[in-house]
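testing teh design pipeline on a random one, pls ignore if ur not involved
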C-alpha cells in the first residue's frame, strides 16, 4: 500500500509559500497597526485566515463599515475557496469526511497551487503531506501578521508604501509556476482558450455584479469550458 509522502515532506514543499506568507503577513500587519492591536490581529489571522479578505477587512474597518458589510464582503471574497476545496476533495476521495474537512479548512490559493504542483509528479498524495503543506502556511501567516502589527507602530502612514500589493505579487508568482507545470500535461491552445474565456467572462460580469461574484462565476464558466474541450 502506498503511504505517500509524510507530514514533514509536506512542510518542506510548502516552505517557499510559508516564507512568502511571513513577508506578506508583515505587510498586512503593518497596515493593520493603526486599527488593531497584535492580539486582535492574531485572532483575525487564526479565525479568518484569508489574505485578500483580511486586507479588505482592514479597508472596511478603516472607514468604520458595519459588521454585516464586513462579514458579507469576506464571504463573497472567499467563495472561490469552496471551488478549490471541492476539487481538492477529489484527490482525497478515499479519505474520511473529517480528513477532508480538516484539509479544506486550511486550504488557500497558494497551498492549492502547491498541491497541484505535487499532483503533476505524484499519482498519490497522502493527507499527512497535505496537512504539512497547510499547517506550516497557516502558522507562518499568523506569525507574520502579528509581528507586522507590532512593527507597524514604528511606521507612519504604512499604506503609502503600497504593501497591500504584496499578496497580488505572490499570487502572480504562484500562477506563473502552475501555468508552466500545466503546459506539460495540457496543450497551450487549450490553456489559452480557457484563460481567454475566464478573462472575457470576468470583464463582462463586472458590469453587472460585484467583482467577488464575477470571479466565482468566471471560474465556474472556465471550468465548464475546460471540461467541454478536454479530449
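output:
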Amino acid at each position: 500500500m502506498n503511504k505517500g509522502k509524510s507530514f514533514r515532506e509536506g512542510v518542506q514543499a510548502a516552505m517557499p509559500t510559508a516564507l512568502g506568507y511571513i513577508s506578506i503577513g508583515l505587510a498586512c500587519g503593518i497596515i493593520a497597526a493603526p486599527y488593531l492591536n497584535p492580539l486582535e490581529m492574531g485572532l483575525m489571522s487564526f479565525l479568518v485566515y484569508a489574505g485578500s479578505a483580511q486586507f479588505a477587512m482592514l479597508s472596511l474597518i478603516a472607514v468604520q463599515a458595519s459588521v454585516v458589510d464586513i462579514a458579507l464582503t469576506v464571504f463573497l471574497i472567499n467563495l472561490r475557496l469552496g471551488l478549490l476545496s471541492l476539487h481538492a476533495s477529489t484527490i482525497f476521495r478515499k479519505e474520511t469526511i473529517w480528513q477532508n474537512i480538516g484539509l479544506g479548512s486550511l486550504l488557500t490559493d497558494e497551498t492549492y497551487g502547491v498541491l497541484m504542483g505535487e499532483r503533476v509528479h505524484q499519482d498519490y498524495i497522502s493527507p499527512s503531506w497535505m496537512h504539512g503543506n497547510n499547517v506550516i502556511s497557516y502558522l507562518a501567516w499568523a506569525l507574520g501578521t502579528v509581528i507586522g502589527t507590532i512593527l507597524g507602530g514604528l511606521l507612519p502612514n504604512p499604506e503609502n508604501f503600497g504593501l497591500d500589493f504584496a499578496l497580488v505579487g505572490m499570487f502572480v508568482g504562484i500562477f506563473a509556476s502552475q501555468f508552466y507545470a500545466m503546459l506539460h500535461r495540457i496543450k497551450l491552445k487549450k490553456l489559452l482558450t480557457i484563460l481567454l474565456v475566464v478573462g472575457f467572462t470576468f470583464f463582462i460580469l463586472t458590469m453587472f455584479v460585484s467583482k467577488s461574484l464575477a470571479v466565482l462565476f468566471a471560474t465556474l464558466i472556465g471550468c465548464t469550458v475546460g471540461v467541454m474541450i478536454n479530449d
